[in-house]
Amino acid sequence: MPLNVHMYPGALQIDQSEETDQGKYECVATNSEGTRYSTPANLYVRALPNPPGAPVIMERSATSITLMWDSGNPLPVSYYIIQYRPSSSTDPFKEIDAIATTRYSVGGLSPYSHYHFRVVAVNSIGHGPPSQTVEARTAEQAPSSPPRRVRGRMLSGSTAMVQWEEPEEANGQVVGYRVYYTSDSSLPVSQWEKEMVRGANFLNIRDLTPNKTYYIRVLAFTAVGDGPLSSDLHIIAKTGVPSQPTELKAEVKSETSILLSWIPPAHSGTDAITGYELIYRLGDQPEQKISFDPSSSYLLKNLKPFSTYIFQLAARSKHGLGAFTSEITVQTPQTRMFCVKLL
Question: Is the same domain home to 87 and 128?
Fold first, then answer.
């Protein structure tokens, strides 16, 4: 008799019963007159479900992973729960429940990212233990943001060096960059000159026409496709003249003041920035100019409330004024009105 089975007068006890103990049971009575059998009784053992088999990766896209797994249970279960989270995360697992099949596609994932997955079976008793955890990475797609911090400076009267950083949302392994440039900004980008760059985050553009303003844009690409182009970078082909400041931003501080901020252009020790020139205008009114010392921000005061202003900024060195940024537009808020009730 198994160690977990105990017999008492008129009773049978099975300790730590398992599903293998279920079946048809009969009580047999024997004496000198013969043997009699009781009416059979069916014993059903119900327990929490076993862990499902380890999930297998069947398909993957840039934003989804399709899993398949073995039930791991001899009896049907009510449903399954998929638990998942980024591999680098220590947050609780996200859950997808009420899954009726042993194949499921988990969507809403980030491209080219690692995730952990596991599966839990549920029956009428409750949730069983999770399966083995597996790791999978989503597929690549084209970058969804342009290269960051595109900047440049003149190395000579006809050669410019352009530098940049990898896109914030590369969505895969960046295999190269394309740099587009022209001195005629009216042309579509498809008609600009272009250079392919692999294995580097900079390019020296040669044979530029001295004293002309050039417009430069950069995109990154993966094995899947091209990402978006960066904003225009403006460079005047003149030795020692700064390129444009980058990432010019405007923050409204009050109804009459706006804080401008930017990243200063790259320069060498002999071409140090000596100041900036700011051009701004109110709607269609004439431009106004302000010159100020080297900085990375400037607070413009005494503006009109509830008005639209347009700004451009250029850096200056001892060799002259560099290229202006593209225009940015910002609106000051309306003056608040207060009502005073006289008693």
Answer: yes
